[in-house]
TrEMBL record:
This is Serine palmitoyltransferase small subunit A. Pathway: Lipid metabolism. It comes from Anopheles stephensi. InterPro entries: Ser_palmitoyltrfase_ssu-like, SPT_small_subunit. It is found in: Endoplasmic reticulum membrane. PANTHER family: SERINE PALMITOYLTRANSFERASE SMALL SUBUNIT A (PTHR47084).
Amino acid sequence: MFRKIWKSITSVYLLYELNTCIYMLDPWEKRFVNAFIFAILGLLIFSSYTFLPGYTRKLVNAFLPAHSALSDLDLDHQRSMEFNIH
């Protein structure tokens, strides 16, 4: 069972190396490229988790009819008018 899992993990990593062409790099270059790729992937996941839910909610509220008198966009507009932010 463990060998089967290990074999599948190594085959996926081999495909990753072949697709990104890092199989021909030195070991230190592989670590650098992998760290860079995982840092970019981590930042992408973090920013999507942090920023997209609010934008998605506003986008949905802009295109769908509001169920209440004040939707989120109306509340944001009302708050900006209270503080004279344009």
